[in-house]
Design brief:
Chain lengths: 661, 661
C-alpha cells in the first residue's frame, strides 16, 4: 500500500464519520480498487464506454458520494452533509443506478454487462474497441441473500459475462447481528456453481495489494463473471467495530473523535480533506477526461471508416428514434381478423425490430406465450454455445422475472439500447422491486405482459391478475397501457417508445379480440377517447383492453332497447390525465353517468366511473369464456348494470368525474 | 421395480394423457416415491402428523390430482376431467398448499418443515413422537431458477431442516426449450453450498429402486435438508418426448393412442384404471387410516400423561384463541406518551407472546427496526448452533422477504401455529408472489410492516411506499390495517388474530404518534369510525394511521375559524366494507363533503372521499418532518384543502360515497 492510498482511505473513513449517517462507510477500504480502473468515473457521464460502478449495498451511500466528491463530480462538501439514504441516479450525476432495495444493484450490473457485450459485438471493429469497459459492483451480505441477486448471478454465469467484476464485502454483519444468525452458506461455492470465477481476500482491511491483484486477475478471465470475496471488519476504528451497532445507528461524537485520532487526523476538524489527497484524486478526473477525449477521437475516426454504423450509434446515443417508426406500425380496420393483443404485439415487434436496432428483448421463459420473439431474432448467448451470439438481441432470461426486470434497468441505464421483456401480467409482481425502480429512476423499459386478466382461463386464479393494474396505476411515473385491439396495440408501443424517461407496461390478452370501429393509433396516445358518440346520451360505457369490445356489444343491446349509450376506450389512465381539462370533459361529459368494465379489481375506478363491472375476488380455473361469464363479463350483465345506473341517477344529479374539488 | 408399481406408473401416464391438460404428467415416474412414505396422504387431512407433499411445479397438477383420486381423496374421475390449471388448496382436500407460481411450493415446504421441527421440540416427549412427519417436495427447473426458492433453500440449509426432502425433476426442458438456453448452473453444487445433502439418480425414468434408496438415505440425514436430482425424460412415451412440445401444449389424439399402446393399454379406453392398481392404491389409504388412528391413540395417552401440553395442543388444533386475549391487550388514553405504532406493536407482542404460544414470529433482518422480537423470545435455530433451539419462536429469516412470506404460508398450512413476520412496508412487494397466495389460499399470516410511509424520512424514496396500500387494498381476501395509535394497534392485532381464514397486513409507523381521544380497540374491528362528531358538519376529514392525528390537528385549525369538521379514522377499508349500510352511512353521512389524508398514493381514495391530500409522486430523502411538509402533510395544508372542498360544494349537491348505483 502506498502512503497516499493509505491517507486516502483514512480520509474517507473520517469523512464518512462526519456525514449525516456516519455508520455506513467505515467498513470500506475497498474504495481503493477504484483507482485501478483505466477509464472509470468520467466527470461527464456522456462517454458511454466509461467503466460502470454500482454500489449494490446502497445503504453505504456515503462511500459513493464521498468518492464522487473527490473525483470531481458535482457533489460538494455541502451536498455531503445532506447525503441521501441511498444512491439516487435520478438526482445525482455519476450514480449509474439507484440502489438501496437489496439485490437490485447487483442485478442491474448484469444488465450493464449485457449491454457492454452486446454493443461491443455490434459496433466494435478491428482497431476500434469502442466498447471495452468493465462493470464493477460492491455488494454485501444483504444483497447476496436476496432472490433477485441469485437469479441474476445464475443468468450472468450462463451468459458468461466476463466484464462483470463483483467485490463482495464479507463483513459478517447484517442489521440483526452476526451473519451466523441466518446466513451460513458457502457463498463462493454457490457462485462457482453458477459458473463464476471466484477469489478470496482474507484481510480486506489491509491487503490492498491483494485486492489489486485480484481485480487484475478478474479482468483476465474474459468468459466468466468474477466475484472477489473480501473479508472486512465493519466500522473499523470505532469502538464498536465488527458489530451490528455500527450498521444500524450513527456513531456518537466521542467515537467519531477517537476514530479521527486513531487514523492520525485532527479530531476537531470536520469534513477535512488533506491537500495531497485532493490532488491525488484530481489525477483520476484528469485520467477520466483523457479517456473521454480519446474515445471521442476514436468515434470520430470510426464514423469516417464506418459511416453507417457510426450514424446508427450517434442516433442511439442522442436518444432519437428512427423517423419512420410511426409509419411502419401495423394499422387495422374492422374487417381485419380478430386477434389476441399478444399476437398483435408480435406483429408490431416483427415490423419494428429491424428498424429499431436498439430494441433488445426477451422473456422469462414464456416466449411462446408472450410472443416476444420476432422472426429474424437471434439469441443473445455466448458465441461458444453455438445457439446464439453477443450480437443477438433476444435474451433468454429463464424463469427469473425479477432479475429480468432489474437487468432491463441496467440495460436502459447503460444507454444505446431499449430493453423489453415478457412474462404473464400477474407475474410482474414477482419483479416489483425492479419495476418500482424503473419508475423511480425513469428508465425506458417496456414490460410486455400477456395473459392480462381472468380471460386467460385454464391456468386459474394463481395466474390471473386481479390487483395488478391497480398497483401499477398507483405507482408514479409509469405508463400502463391496456390496448383494445390492433390499432391500440400499435399505439401502445408508440407511446412506450416515445417516452424516454419512463417505463411502460403493456397489458395484453391471451384471447382474440375484434378490430374496433374508430380505434386509432394516434388517439391511443391521448390515453382515452370516444369510440362511439351519441347526442343526448343516457350512459357512458368505459372499458380497457378486452373489455372495450364487450362494452361495444353491451351498447348494441342497450341501443336495441332505445337507450342511448356512448362508448369510451381508456387504454391509459396516465396519458389521459395529461390531457387538457377540455379534452377530458369531452370524453366524460358532465351529466352522463358512467359504467366501467374491466376484468380486474374495481379498486380505483371511482376516478372515472359511477358504477363498475369488475372483480372483487379471485378468479377460477376453466375455459376462458366460462370464466368471464361466471364473473359477469357478458354484454347482458354490462347492459344490466347500465340500466341500473341510469335508473339510480334518474332523479339525482350525476357527479362529474372530471370537475372535482 | 415390482410389476404392480410399473403398472401403476403406466396407469398414471395414460390417465394423464386423458386429462384436459394431458401434457403435464407424462414426465413423471417419481410419483412412485409416494408409496415409500410411512404416513402420507391421509384421507383425512386432520391428522397433523401426516407427511406433507408439495408439488412445487404446480403445472404438473394432473399428477397430484390423479394420485389424490387413487389414494381415495374426494377427487372423482369426473373431477379429473376438470382438473384445474394448478393445485388449489383452498378447493381440494389433500392439496396442502396452492402452487403454480414457480418457487412458491418449494418455499412453502421450508415453512412446513419449520413447523414440524418446532412442534416436535415443543410437544414431543419420551415415547411420544407426536410430530415426526417428513416434508416431500417435487420441484422442477422452473422453481429452482426463481429467487424465492433460492432464498428458501439458503434458509433451510442454515436451519438444518432434516425432515425436508426435495425431489428435483431434472428433465432439461422448460417452456422456451432446452435448459441450455438459460439454465446451465450446477444445481447440486449450489445446494451443497447452502448446506444441503445431495444425491443424484441418472435414470429417473426407470431406476425406481434408486429413488427408493435415495429417499431412505435422505431420511437418515437428520441435520440437513436433502435434494435428490432425478434425470428424467419429459413426456416419455410421446413421439415428442424430451422436447418442450410436450410441456407447452396438449398431445394430439394419435399420440395419446400411441402412448397407451406403448404402455400395454387399450387405446380405445379413456380414464381406465386396472382393478389391481385400484386395489393396490387402496392399501395406501388403509395404511393412512391406520396411521391416523394410531396417532389419535397416541394423543389420547399423551393428554393423560401431559394434560397441560395436551390441552394446549388440542386448543391450537381446533383453531381457538386463548380466552383472555382481548383482556390483555394494551389500552391507552390521550395522556399516555406519543409512540410509534411499531413500538406499540412491540408492546402488543410482549403482552401476547406468552399467552398465545402458537405465535411464531420473525423479521427479514430488520428486527431492531420492525421491533418484532419480544422480551422473552428465543431464536428458532438448530440446537447445535448454541444461539437458539427448535423450541424457539423467533425466526431470523435473513434478508429474504419473499422466502419469509412463502415460509409463513407453509407454517400456517401446517396447523397449530400463527406466523408473523416483519420488514418495511415498501418491501412487502418483494414478497408479493407469496402475499398473494396467503390471500388466495386464506392463510392466517400476519405481516408486520413498519416504516409505512414517506414519514420514514432519511432512507429516501427507494424505501418509501407509495403504491403499496393501493395494491394491498385491491388484493382480495386480505385485511389491511393501518392503526393510528395504541388502541388501534391493539385492535389491529385482535382483528388479525380473529380472522383464521385470511392474512393481515399491519402498516406501522417509524415516527411517534399521539394517543387519540376516542380511539378504541373494539371500534378498530369495524374498520372505520367517527373520532370527532359535530352537528351540521361542514366537512369530514378522514385519515388512516399517522394521518389521523394530522386530521385532528387540521380540524382544530378549522374550528378556530368557525368551520365545523368531523374526523373519521379508517384503519381498514375491508373491515369497514363489511359493516351495515346504516353504520357506514353514519360514519360518512350524506351531504357532508369528505377530504382524505393519507401519506400514500391517492389512487382508490375516491371510494371514500371527494378530495385528497396524498401522494401522486415518489418521496424524497430527508428528516421526516421536512419530507412530510414538502408533500403537504401539515395541518395548514389539510385545512386549506378542506376549505377548498367546502367552497367547491357550496352550490352543488355532494355525491354520497355510500349510496351508489
Amino acid at each position: 500500500m502506498t502512503d497516499i492510498n493509505k491517507l486516502s482511505i483514512n480520509t474517507i473513513r473520517t469523512l464518512a464519520a462526519d456525514v449525516v449517517l456516519p455508520w455506513v462507510v467505515l467498513q470500506w477500504p475497498i474504495f481503493y480498487f477504484q483507482n485501478l480502473l483505466p477509464v472509470t468515473r468520467q466527470i461527464h457521464t456522456g462517454q458511454i464506454n466509461r467503466d460502470r460502478f454500482v454500489l449494490s449495498n446502497g445503504h453505504a451511500c456515503a462511500l459513493q458520494y464521498i468518492m464522487l466528491h473527490l473525483t470531481g463530480y458535482d457533489v460538494t462538501i455541502d451536498d455531503l452533509k445532506q447525503t441521501p439514504g441511498h444512491p439516487e441516479a435520478h438526482l445525482t450525476p455519476g450514480v449509474e443506478v439507484t440502489t438501496g432495495p437489496l439485490g437490485q444493484g447487483f442485478a442491474n450490473a448484469v444488465g450493464l454487462a449485457i449491454s457492454r457485450e452486446h454493443l461491443a459485438a455490434v459496433f466494435n471493429k478491428p482497431g476500434f474497441d469502442l466498447f471495452s469497459n468493465y462493470t464493477y459492483v460492491i455488494t454485501g451480505d444483504g444483497c447476496l441473500q436476496e432472490g433477485v441477486a441469485s437469479e441474476a448471478a445464475s443468468l450472468a454465469g450462463h451468459l458468461q459475462l466476463g466484464n462483470l467484476i463483483v467485490l463482495y464485502d464479507d463483513n459478517h454483519i447484517s442489521i440483526d447481528g452476526n451473519t451466523e444468525l441466518s446466513f451460513t452458506e458457502d457463498v463462493l461455492k454457490r457462485f462457482e456453481a453458477y459458473g463464476w470465477h471466484t477469489q478470496e481476500i482474507t484481510d480486506g482491511n489491509n491487503d490492498l495489494n491483494g485486492i489489486t491483484t485480484a481485480v487484475e486477475n478478474a479482468k483476465k478471465v474474459t468468459d466468466k463473471p468474477s466475484i472477489i470475496k473480501i473479508r472486512t471488519i465493519i466500522g473499523i476504528g470505532s469502538k464498536n467495530q465488527g458489530t451490528e451497532k455500527v450498521h444500524g445507528s450513527p456513531l456518537n461524537p466521542d467515537d467519531i473523535a477517537n476514530i479521527k485520532t486513531a487514523f492520525g487526523f485532527d479530531s476537531s476538524k470536520y469534513f477535512y480533506i488533506p491537500d495531497e489527497v485532493r490532488q491525488y484524486w484530481r489525477s483520476f478526473s484528469e485520467r477520466g477526461q483523457k479517456a473521454e477525449n480519446d474515445w471521442n477521437d476514436l468515434l470520430k475516426s470510426y464514423k469516417e471508416k464506418y459511416p453507417e454504423e457510426g450514424a446508427d450509434l450517434t442516433r442511439r446515443l442522442s436518444n432519437k428514434l428512427p423517423d419512420n417508426l410511426a409509419a411502419v406500425l401495423p394499422r387495422y380496420t374492422p374487417s381485419d381478423s380478430a386477434l389476441a393483443t399478444r399476437k398483435l404485439s408480435e406483429a408490431v415487434l416483427n415490423k419494428i425490430a429491424d428498424i429499431v436496432p436498439e430494441l433488445i428483448g426477451g422473456s422469462a421463459d414464456l416466449t411462446e406465450s408472450n410472443l416476444t420473439r420476432w422472426k429474424t431474432a437471434v439469441d443473445f448467448q455466448h458465441p461458444s454455445t453455438n445457439i446464439g451470439n453477443y450480437k443477438g438481441r433476444y435474451i433468454r432470461y429463464g424463469v427469473r422475472e425479477h432479475a429480468m426486470a432489474a437487468a432491463m434497468n441496467g440495460i436502459a441505464a447503460y444507454g444505446g439500447l431499449i430493453p423489453f421483456g415478457g412474462t404473464f401480467l400477474n407475474f410482474i409482481t414477482y419483479a416489483w422491486g425492479a419495476v418500482r425502480l424503473s419508475a423511480l429512476t425513469g428508465f425506458r423499459v417496456i414490460y410486455v405482459m400477456t395473459h392480462d386478466s381472468i380471460g386467460l382461463g385454464e391456468d386459474g386464479p394463481t395466474h390471473q391478475p386481479i390487483e395488478t393494474l391497480a398497483a401499477l396505476r398507483a405507482l408514479p411515473n409509469i405508463l400502463v397501457l391496456r390496448p383494445a385491439d390492433g390499432n391500440e396495440t400499435s399505439g401502445a408501443y408508440l407511446a412506450a417508445l416515445k417516452n424516454p424517461l419512463r417505463p411502460s407496461v403493456l397489458a395484453l390478452t391471451r384471447q382474440n379480440l375484434p378490430q374496433l370501429q374508430n380505434s386509432s393509433v394516434e388517439k391511443t396516445l391521448q390515453g382515452g377517447y370516444v369510440l362511439e358518440e351519441v347526442d343526448n346520451a343516457d350512459i357512458t360505457l368505459v372499458g380497457t383492453g378486452s373489455e372495450v369490445s364487450l362494452a361495444v356489444d353491451a351498447a348494441k343491446l342497450l341501443k336495441s332497447e332505445g337507450i342511448k349509450p356512448r362508448v369510451v376506450s381508456l387504454p391509459s389512465f396516465e396519458l389521459f390525465e395529461e390531457q387538457s381539462l377540455e379534452y377530458r370533459s369531452s370524453v366524460f361529459p358532465d351529466g352522463v353517468p358512467i359504467v366501467s368494465v374491466e376484468a380486474m379489481s374495481t379498486y380505483g375506478w371511482d376516478a372515472y366511473s359511477h358504477a363498475h363491472v369488475g372483480m372483487r375476488m379471485f378468479g377460477a380455473s376453466g375455459p376462458y369464456k366460462e370464466v368471464l361469464k361466471k364473473y359477469g363479463f357478458t354484454p347482458e350483465n354490462v347492459a344490466s348494470k347500465a340500466r341500473e345506473t341510469i335508473a339510480f341517477y334518474k332523479d339525482k344529479s350525476v357527479p362529474s368525474v372530471i370537475f372535482r374539488p
